[in-house]
Design a protein that fits this description.
- The complex is a heterodimer of chains A (about 290) and B (about 325).
- Chain A has about 290 residues and is mostly helical.
- Chain A has two domains: about 1-65, no CATH class; about 65-285, MetI-like (MetI-like fold).
- Chain A is about 70% helix and about 0% strand.
- In chain A, helix 2 (about 60-65) packs across helix 13, helix 4 (about 110-125) crosses helix 7 and helix 10 (about 200-215) packs across helix 14.
- Chain A is flat, with a radius of gyration of 24 Å.
- The N and C termini of chain A lie far apart (about 50 Å).
- The relative contact order of chain A is 0.13.
- Chain B has about 325 residues and is mainly α.
- Chain B folds into two domains: about 40-90 and about 285-315, no CATH class; about 90-280, MetI-like (MetI-like fold).
- Chain B is built from 13 helices and two strands, in the order H-H-E-E-H-H-H-H-H-H-H-H-H-H-H.
- Chain B has a two-stranded antiparallel sheet with strand order 1-2.
- The chains are: A mainly alpha (about 290), B mainly alpha (about 325).
- At the A-B interface, helix 1, helix 3, helix 4, helix 5 and helix 9 of A face helix 1, helix 3, helix 4, helix 5 and helix 6 of B.
Chain lengths: ~290, ~325
């Protein structure tokens, strides 16, 4: 009896210590982000002198000055551009990646295993070897300075991660479903639209989610192709706060707009958490 | 009659597969295979974006530009008789990148595993903790965080404010000091251990609790259990994380670009490979040279990945028993 109580107390102490440790470590980790959010509401002169989280004075001046944007284009336009690109990228990825995944997971055709192996290799292939020729190609199309180089590839299932994720998911669906539908006279297209897609909604959500985040946070492609302020994305526009030598002219505005830039990711993450975990564990998504 | 319908059926079956695969196939050939072949060729030319008409085949000229200094050559003559200067910063960018990869990836994985083990207990609120620990990963690759990082590690930044409050004096500007600049980027990467943590956590959940109980009965302590049960059973997951993180780290770009303001930082101390490639290709418009650089990166990543997989039969166990 006494011993049992002892063990119990021990467990409670151990758990409390673990909780405490996790909380302290967690707070340390997110402190910079919290500080950034708080500092974006501090007067510009106080950002440099105050490491604390409780502002001595609250102001919106950083948001006003940051929102003005760059070269006469406001952050309203940059946000609209980013949202537009994300929306189109999601549509493109959903269509093209589900089609490819359905073919790999369910349809029988000559060369399927070969193509699947090829797809898996492209999953690991660093993108650098294709960057230059793609740039030259898109330039001959007159696409540099438009959204097209970023959006068009999404309609050709170039994000192999999602194809793989969807293949894994579709394979896990019971085969009897489509077999029954096929016997009932359903064509492959019918099976795809009526059986596979409705049952693959969780994987579709994961695909849409990560497409949003990667398009939103992408910088390299935006730097290459979004060459004019009216078509800047948010991440491309944030770069304009940082001068060529790395100096930042308007720290308050930079922190304020950076805070705003993180909001969509935050909202999606906290509302769709389980899809995150699913996406990460099935494909080991980079990050 | 019957035979024909069989063939038709066969064709139809294949047709459906290829119809659904068509977007991917097109993308693969037009946006992957063709660019790869094209860039392989460009790597042997002096293609300059501003004067593509003057493109000449220069053999291994671009590769000599990269590795010439290794053999003490700062100038050389190409196949076309043109005298070219070696790239004085290429080897620097290579060493910066290797340092970054070999420091950040192991640290990140160790940290991720430690936290995953901490969370792999019957604790209340693990879901919430996991979410909080994932936040840096969620946002870490963005320009916003890179801008913040600059602010944190400047001479009068947040980090020095704290260190100053703790009594440290003579603190450097971490970003502007070539000795420390790269390490702020390593820290930024390690900070984003969330994905690896979640993968480790899923792996840890697969290990039957009975193994630990049996080991405890046999008198194995926690350290012994960790090395005899956790590590071997988790080794496939470790391999996976190692490969993916390594491939990703070699391609890091955004943070170095923002923190260096589009350059390689003080004394090129943060001149990542991708950043150097970008500067050569898009600042100087030397797309031929940039293509050659891309191919070397591909070979480096390919060789290291192969090496890791090769070594995996020494330390990765796929069996359940022995």
């Amino acid at each position: 009896m006494g011993r049992g109580n002892n063990v119990k107390t021990n467990t409670i102490v151990r758990h409390t210590l673990t909780h405490l440790f996790i909380i302290v470590l967690g707070l340390t980790m997110v402190y910079p982000i919290l500080w950034m959010i708080v500092s974006s509401f501090k007067p510009n002169t106080m950002i440099f002198s105050d490491p604390g989280l409780i502002p001595k004075a609250v102001t919106l001046e950083n948001y006003v000055s940051g929102w003005k944007g760059y070269a006469g284009v406001t952050f309203g336009k940059f946000f609209a551009n980013s949202l537009f690109m994300c929306a189109v990228a999601i549509v493109g990825n959903l269509i093209s990646c589900t089609m490819a995944a359905y073919a790999f997971a369910r349809l029988k055709f000559a060369g399927r295993n070969l193509w699947f192996a090829v797809m898996m290799i492209t999953l690991m292939l660093p993108g650098h070897v294709t960057i230059v020729p793609r740039y030259i190609l898109f330039n001959t199309f007159g696409w540099v300075g438009t959204f097209l180089p970023i959006l068009v590839p999404k309609f050709f299932a170039t994000d192999a991660f999602f194809v793989f994720l969807l293949v894994q998911f579709i394979r896990s669906l019971p085969k009897e479903l489509d077999e029954a539908a096929t016997i009932d006279g359903c064509s492959p297209v019918g099976v795809f639209l009526q059986i596979i897609l409705p049952n693959a909604v969780p994987a579709l959500v994961t695909t849409a989610l990560f497409t949003f985040l990667w398009t939103w946070d992408d910088f390299f492609n935006h730097l290459l192709y979004l060459t004019k302020p009216p078509i800047f994305s948010v991440s491309r526009a944030l770069r304009t706060f940082v001068g060529d030598a790395g100096a930042v002219s308007n720290w308050g505005g930079a922190l304020a707009m950076s805070t705003l830039a993180m909001i969509p990711s935050f909202i999606l993450f906290f509302s769709l958490q389980k899809y995150f975990v699913q996406g990460i564990t099935t494909t080991g998504i980079k990050g | 009659m019957r035979k024909t319908s069989g063939i038709v059926k066969f064709l139809r079956k294949n047709a459906a597969g290829y119809m659904f695969l068509m977007p991917w196939l097109l993308g693969f050939f037009v946006l992957m295979i063709y660019p790869m072949i094209y860039s392989l060729w460009l790597g042997f030319t002096n293609y300059n974006f501003t004067k593509p008409g003057a493109t000449q085949f220069i053999g291994f000229g671009n590769y000599l530009r990269m590795f010439g200094p290794l053999f003490g050559q700062s100038e050389f003559t190409t196949a076309t008789g043109e005298v070219m200067r070696a790239d004085p910063y290429y080897l620097k960018s290579l060493s910066v990148t290797f340092t970054y990869v070999f420091a950040s990836v192991p640290l990140k994985l160790i940290f991720a595993l430690a936290v995953a083990m901490l969370m792999n207990q019957k604790l209340r609120g693990v879901g919430f903790y996991r979410a909080v620990y994932y936040i840096p990963t969620l946002l870490g690759g963005s320009v916003a965080i890179a801008v913040l990082w600059r602010k944190l590690f400047e001479k009068d930044g947040l980090v020095n404010m704290f260190l100053g409050a703790l009594g440290f004096t003579n603190l450097p500007g971490w970003i502007t000091n070539p000795r420390y600049a790269l390490w702020t980027l390593v820290l930024l990467t390690v900070w984003q251990f969330g994905s690896s943590m979640i993968i480790f956590l899923a792996g840890l959940k697969q290990i039957p609790q009975e193994y630990y109980e049996a080991a405890a009965v046999d008198g194995a302590n926690k350290v012994r259990q960790f090395f005899s049960i956790t590590i071997p059973l988790l080794s496939p997951v470790i391999l996976f994380n190692l490969v993916m993180q390594m491939i990703g780290a070699f391609q890091a770009f955004t943070q170095a670009y923002i923190i260096g303001g589009g350059r390689g930082g003080v004394l090129n101390s943060t001149l990542f490979y991708s950043l150097h490639l970008y500067i050569q290709g898009w600042t100087y418009r030397e797309l031929g040279y940039a293509s050659a650089m891309a191919w070397v990166l591909l070979l480096i990543i390919g060789a290291l990945t192969a090496l890791v997989f090769r070594s995996s039969n020494l330390w990765v166990s796929y069996g359940t028993g022995e």
